Amino acid sequence: MEPRFDLSGNGIAAAFAQRFANTALVIHRSPLPRSAQELVSLRVSQINGCGWCVDLHTKEAAAAGETAVRLSLVAAWRESTVFTDAERAALALAEEGTRLADAHDGVSDETWARVREHYGDDEVAALVCLVALVNAANRLAVIVHQRGGSYEAGMFTGAAG
């Protein structure tokens, strides 16, 4: 599968990407723990089959100190023991918030209650915005067949302005 379109080489897409990066920076600077941000981003990207984003979030998480064991188990987080209760709540929200078509109620009351048990208002706001943002990023990359494998950790550091 070859890339269909170079988003970075188009003026409209590049301008959009700059604003997208600024939006991501708001979440990155939020009180939501970095580990939760990367685990959620990785899980959403796995669900959506976005190779570019799985590559990016795996490498960024590893660069931030995430272990190979935890990264390997994100796809099977329910059947593993390496995630905290807070991370499990965030991963459940990520899955339910990504698989909206699978349940008419979207995020369940049970999942929402678990998230609220572990995160304050600013962290919840960041978590909800992160799930929406990563889903949008996945769609951009999947639509144009942007493939994973070439990302280097820190590649976009300083891209937002």
UniProtKB/TrEMBL annotation:
Molecular function as annotated in GO: peroxiredoxin activity
Entry superkingdom: Bacteria
InterPro entries from the UniProt entry: AhpD-like, AhpD_core, CMD-like
Residue ranges annotated for the Carboxymuconolactone decarboxylase-like domain, each copy included: 16-96
Pfam families linked to this entry: CMD (PF02627)
PANTHER family: 4-CARBOXYMUCONOLACTONE DECARBOXYLASE FAMILY PROTEIN (AFU_ORTHOLOGUE AFUA_6G11590), BLL7811 PROTEIN
UniProt protein name: Alkyl hydroperoxide reductase AhpD
Source organism of this protein record: Streptomyces minutiscleroticus
